[in-house]
User: What shape does this take?
Amino acid sequence: MRTIARALIAAALVTGATLHGAAAENTGAIGTSATAPGMVPQNAIHPDVAAATPPATQVTSPTGLPPVPGVINADPAKPIAYQDAKRGFMLVAPPGSRFQERADAEQISIQSRKGYAVNIQTGDANPAMTTPEMFHKLEVRYLGDGKPWARKVDESEEIVAGMPAGVAVYEAGSTRTKVVVARGANTDFVMMFFAPISHFEKLSTEFEWILASFRPAPGEKPAEPVQIAGKQDPQAVEPPLRAQTAPDANPAGRPKPVEQASAPDVLIFSEAGYGYRIEYPAAWQLEKLSAFTNAISGPQGTPAYDAIVSLQNVKPAGDGDVARIALDNLKANLSQQARAVQFVGEKPVTYAKYGLTLQGHQFVASYDHQGQRFRKWALVIPRPEGGIAHIWSYTAPATQFDTYRPVAEKILNSLKIDG
Assistant: This one.
């Protein structure tokens, strides 16, 4: 009988500190009044739009979340597409999100079980008011002693869906708020992202997803491409390489399976920000466990579903051999999360492809997890520029390890590290 397990998150960082789940701390944004720390009704820019009415006392649902009136497409397992009937803009929210729409206020809220919230408000464009003046109007009302925002920590200019935009970040208590004001030809868009400071960077990938999917109505974008002084063309800028602080041991776990679409015999994963290219069988599925980790496994309903090839980017603290540090932490995390762990075959490994020669480490481990014996083969290879390491691993029940090892080796041999 197939073992059903959830992904295990590494219990210790390289520094020894505890890593808490993003959903463990509430943002203070969901189900609270607009005057809670970090929460600002967006009608400060468009005063003719009423602030959202704070929800009355609600009965908690079996999921532990308060019911949300006006929810649109609340299936937690799928991304949610939304199109505004009046302004014509479109966007997509990640899985686990729920929309709440206030047509009378030209405002929607996106609430996530992961612990963040996004508010989006629209109003008629006001060319007479500059973007800095719009932010100043917000800050006069909401920034300062005794106000929802205690301090401003960052500001910049960006391009959002082809429109010029101002961006500012504010903090209050344990909450951080990112405000994006995008200026369309007919509409001003105000987007606010609320999350705990402790998990803000991790949860920001969800907000980036929403911004990347955002499409204004035709006619909103300027006729000429927007240029920001002192910045390169955003298409020419290479995104920063993604990496987490500590490796995840993941003895057997996976997130919820996704449907497998029809495809050629071999699929290729090569996404900016990950630093590598890899090929895998089209019959297998690739799942993003996080912004730093991908997992590839066989089709659901087959024994190959328990054979998992994963790739992680880690950036451990400390000086020295980054691959060695990451390997030691992976071994330590696996020893904490599994039982009867035995490490064998630990030795150096050399990556020599496409003009790159990188010295790393590998090991094979056997262990018990959730009543079943597993084997894991792991390689840790440093990035050419240092500081970050790639961890490739193949994990399967011990009785199936040799069966799917040729597939895992083929995936490994296709690995191309960007240099």
Remarks:
- The chain has two domains: 22-236, 266-417.
- The longest strand covers residues 339-353.
- The helical segments are 131-142, 200-213, 322-337, 401-413.
- The radius of gyration is 24 Å.
